[in-house]
UniProtKB/TrEMBL annotation:
This is Sulfur carrier protein FdhD. The keyword Cytoplasm applies. The keyword Cytoplasm applies. Belongs to the FdhD family. The active site is at C110. InterPro entries: Cytidine_deaminase-like, FdhD. It holds the Pfam family FdhD-NarQ. Keywords: Cytoplasm, Molybdenum cofactor biosynthesis, Transferase. It is found in: Cytoplasm. One of its GO terms (biological process) is Mo-molybdopterin cofactor biosynthetic process. Coiled coil: none annotated. Required for formate dehydrogenase (FDH) activity. Acts as a sulfur carrier protein that transfers sulfur from IscS to the molybdenum cofactor prior to its insertion into FDH.
Amino acid sequence: MTIGTTSLEVTKFSNSRLQNPQTDIIAIEKPVALVYNGISHVVMMATPKDLDYFAIGFSLTENIIESVNDIYGIDIVERAEGIEVNIELSSRRFAQLKEKRRNLTGRTGCGICGTEQIEQVCQSISPLQLNDKIKLSNFSDSLAYLTNVQSVGKQTGCTHAAVWLDLNGQFLAGFEDIGRHVALDKLLGYRAKQQQLSNQEQKGVILVSSRASYEMVQKTAICGIEILLAVSAATSMAIDNAKQNNLTLIGFFRGEKGVIYSDFGRIIE
């Protein structure tokens, strides 16, 4: 077993016939509370691994912080009922957070559940620059990276993945979680931390194992990433958001084929 899994005795059946009980590997799902300066802000159901990167990524994509430097410390505490991720914010960012706090408990499927007003769904983002270009042929083998980073998924079939590729299609990093939004937040948190350590922009492409929903596009654009590849379909709102923010969005990505919803001249073949 790996981090994020547990074992359980189950009974399987085949051709309607019961088999002997056997041990199966199960993905762990736990409530994870993100607590800012002592005040709980949100509870998400997540796989309990890479939670420091999740805290950074969520904080960035929710505009709670502007950069990793706004976080002074992260402390992960196991509780009987779940996990607390205690995040120490700068006083300026914490004051702004208190002004716009909203109840987001249970954001597992739809990332905007709990939003109080429709206007809060659509965050204002500066349109992305047109700096990155890719050759699709360089990404023909990229799907394998999604499998490679899913140590929990390989054993349980229960996770999504998000991977970070350079502009030539080479693997840089990847994370998994039971929630597609959380997997993406973990990846974005990792990227932000690497930028802080190197003091250089980390250019590249995101590939996700899920559909491209509105919030997946929104999170990607907020972090300044210009290209998003999704294994499954894109929703109408995701496509509209991609076009508004100058993000190149490709769905049904299968390495050598896919559907281009928005291009903006970044695909050079």
